[in-house]
Amino acid sequence: MMLRRGFILFLPRLVGLLVVACCSMSIVYMLACTPKGDNQQFALPRVHSSTVKEGYEAILQEREEEHRNYIISLKKQIAQLKAELQGRTEQLKNMQNQYPDSLDVQLDHSKPEKAQANLLAFLRSQVDKAEVHSGVKLSTEYAAVPFESFTLQKVYQLETGLTRHPEEKPVRKDKRDELIEVIELAVGSLNKPDGVSKAKPRLYTASDFIEGIYRTEKNKGTLYELTFKGDAKHQFKKIVLFRPFGPVMKVKNENVNMADTLINVIVPLAKRASKFRQFMQNFREMGIQQDGRIHLTVVYFGKEQMNEVKSILENTSKSANFKNFTFIQLNEEFSRGKGLDVGARFWKGNNVVLFFCDVDIYFTAEFLNSCRLNTQPGKKVFYPVLFSQYNPSIIYGHHDSIPSLEQQLIIKKETGFWRDFGFGMTCQYRSDFLNIGGFDLDIKGWGGEDVHLYRKYLHSNLMVIRTPVRGLFHLWHEKQCLDELTPEQYKMCMQSKAMNEASHGQLGMLVFKQEIETHLHRQKLSSKKT
């Protein structure tokens, strides 16, 4: 009862307050909506004037026009604010897409499905940022992140430091477990039924694994590309995996058929007939007999020793029944870039894989497959890091005799090094070579042309595959640095010459040879006295 009585007494006051509020709002609205003139006053017509009605109509029409203009102005301002707000929103979205941060992953544990979806979205954004589906433009040749290669037993690595070796077993447990996990996941992916084929699927095992390459980008993750034996000769299975700082994600599972993929090996040459004979022995065994899907283009400069080189070619052609070769002769000063460019453009057939090679290179049939598997027209070019042989007379100087060439081709710290500063041996499709503009033909003599081409690919959207390969060797030969070279070329030539001779330890033994002999002599004398 008391509550009801209180409410009845309070009701008139509430109504009064509402009336006052409504009046106040009306007054404020009239003041806000009334357009302000420049201190102008509207003079009301006199009451007794004969034009009272017309005067009021004119005033009302003028005020109506001002209100209409004011409303139009407000609408324009609102439209401008909306456009600016939309623009700022788009900028914010672009920044979030370009620089997604792990803090953006809202892991609401009360909604596990949403948390999982957010986490997967973030991980997939890491895949999109990394060079998985396409290459990215890079500023210099040092900006490219090289791959490292591995088999079931060995890892072939570039950054050896003072304790690691160019070829070694994965001693560290974390690296060993990582590679085992990747291979097992790839095998599991291959054995997973696709739901399309009714035939009994082949069961893959780790023994079908041929080799893989991997590289880690510290702000994205690790990319793995693994190659397995296929269902027939010259067929392969390729699995691409990516670890975006979390679980490994399958990116691609594809069949790769290389049965009809021809490689055109282009060799520029001037003189050096004895080296060419050695090269043709390797070419015959690995290229003709074992691989069989190969063409040879020799671009010869000058005429000295030309007949001997042509004779070696013709003898190989007859003895091996090999007709897939081209001989081009140029009457001009030797230029490696010019020779490779002429050889590439001379080809008249379909799009072909080009392997730019030198006469002092030894390759295996497995490398030729790596050349095919790591190139893709419009997508990928292959820049293998070859293993460069030290001077055999220094390495085996303490032996009774120098081993045969095949016995020398082992990857060890004492026998050679990964030639990671060289970009001359490369595989790419002819269409990519022509589209990129080929070599810089203004460069003469030794060195420089390969780096310019490499930089062109880095500046493009093509993916550059850079990895050490176990089937490509640079055979030692004495290097001559000619006086005609520019200062920069001469410096590069001398650095290459020093690197080619022996390891730091072996060169140190030569430098301190006299001190070592003196020490041994003193040791003998002291032992005799005692």
UniProtKB/TrEMBL annotation:
Listed name of the protein: Hexosyltransferase
InterPro entries for this protein: Chond_GalNAc, CS_glycosyltransferase, Nucleotide-diphossugar_trans
Coiled-coil residue spans: 64-98
Enzyme class, broadest EC rank: transferase
Species this chain originates from: Pardalotus punctatus (spotted pardalote)
This enzyme's EC code(s): 2.4.1.-
Transmembrane segments: 7-32
Signal peptide per UniProt: none
GO annotations of cellular component type: Golgi cisterna membrane
Pfam annotation, one family: CHGN
Subcellular location: Golgi apparatus, Golgi stack membrane
Family designation: Belongs to the chondroitin N-acetylgalactosaminyltransferase family.
The keyword Membrane belongs to this UniProt entry's keyword annotation: yes
Membrane topology: Single-pass type II membrane protein
Catalytic activity reported: 3-O-(beta-D-GlcA-(1->3)-beta-D-Gal-(1->3)-beta-D-Gal-(1->4)-beta-D-Xyl)-L-seryl-[protein] + UDP-N-acetyl-alpha-D-galactosamine = 3-O-(beta-D-GalNAc-(1->4)-beta-D-GlcA-(1->3)-beta-D-Gal-(1->3)-beta-D-Gal-(1->4)-beta-D-Xyl)-L-seryl-[protein] + UDP + H(+)
Single Gene Ontology MF annotation: glucuronosyl-N-acetylgalactosaminyl-proteoglycan 4-beta-N-acetylgalactosaminyltransferase activity
The keyword Amino-acid biosynthesis is assigned to this record: no
GO process terms (BP): chondroitin sulfate proteoglycan biosynthetic process
Top-level division of the source organism's lineage: Eukaryota
Keywords: Coiled coil, Glycoprotein, Golgi apparatus, Membrane, Metal-binding, Signal-anchor, Transferase, Transmembrane, Transmembrane helix
